[in-house]
């Protein structure tokens, strides 16, 4: 049985000078990746703003989805992180 191959992940955030880059296991969840990305960029969610990950303009709203499910047969994922203001906060 061969070891699972890693997925190269890049997350671009407009306010950051460089993208977040990592090699992640296909079993890593979107939620785990999002937590690592927010920490790397020094960001925190609160009652007035949240951050959303997007893959090819599609929001990755299911935080339990794995990177393997998102990537399919690809071994590279280019994602974007966007800040979203919470209405009525």
> What is the gyration radius calculated from CA atoms?
13 Å
Structural class: alpha+beta
Amino-to-carboxy terminus distance: 51 Å
The CATH class designation is: Alpha Beta
Query: How many domains, as an integer?
Result: 1
Low-confidence stretches: none
Index terms:
alpha+beta, Ubiquitin-like (UB roll), 5-stranded mixed sheet, 2 helices, 89 residues
How is the topology of this model organized?
Elements: E1 7-13, E2 20-24, H1 30-41, E3 49-55, E4 58-59, H2 67-71, E5 76-85
Parallel strand pairs: 1-5
Antiparallel strand pairs: 1-2, 3-4, 3-5
Concise summary:
The protein has 89 residues and is an alpha+beta fold.
Please, could you describe this protein's structure?
The chain is of the alpha+beta class. The protein has a single domain (7-85), classed as Ubiquitin-like (UB roll) (Roll), CATH 3.10.20. The protein has two helices and five strands. The chain has helices spanning 30-41, 67-71, and strands at 7-13, 20-24, 49-55, 58-59, 76-85. The chain has a five-stranded mixed beta sheet. The model has no long low-confidence stretch (mean pLDDT 94).
């Amino acid at each position: 049985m061969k070891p699972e191959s890693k997925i190269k992940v890049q997350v671009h955030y407009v306010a950051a000078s460089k993208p977040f880059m990592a090699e992640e296991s296909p079993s890593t969840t979107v939620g785990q990746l999002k937590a690592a990305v927010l920490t790397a960029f020094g960001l925190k969610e609160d009652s007035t703003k949240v951050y959303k990950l997007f893959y090819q303009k599609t929001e990755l709203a299911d935080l339990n989805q794995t990177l393997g499910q998102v990537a399919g047969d690809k071994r590279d994922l280019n994602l974007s992180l966007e800040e979203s203001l919470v209405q009525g906060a």
